[in-house]
Predict the 3D structure of the following.
Amino acid sequence: MLIEHYDLKVFTPPCDPGAERFSAFAELAVDISVVLPYLNATLRGAVYHRAANALIWKKGGEPTCYSFAIKLMASQKQLADCPPLHEPASVQRLTGLQDIVIDAPAIG
């Protein structure tokens, strides 16, 4: 077995203190960098970051809210593509975004 032990650190994202969501960081005792591209291809929602040598998961399919917002502005994503926006705690944000985001053909 490749991974026999890991330490898991769970924390509130520093960019959103007090949020009702958490980030997690698993520190492994062994180097699994050679299998990360394969895991990226098979694990749903995983995004492989070669420079960081890491896999990242994010609700909505984007590694960060910023990257989702960029694709939203370029009409490559829609508000419906972000599940956290459709949670009860985000109703006010979703309503505000629906007022300003327009449907347009995708750029690029």
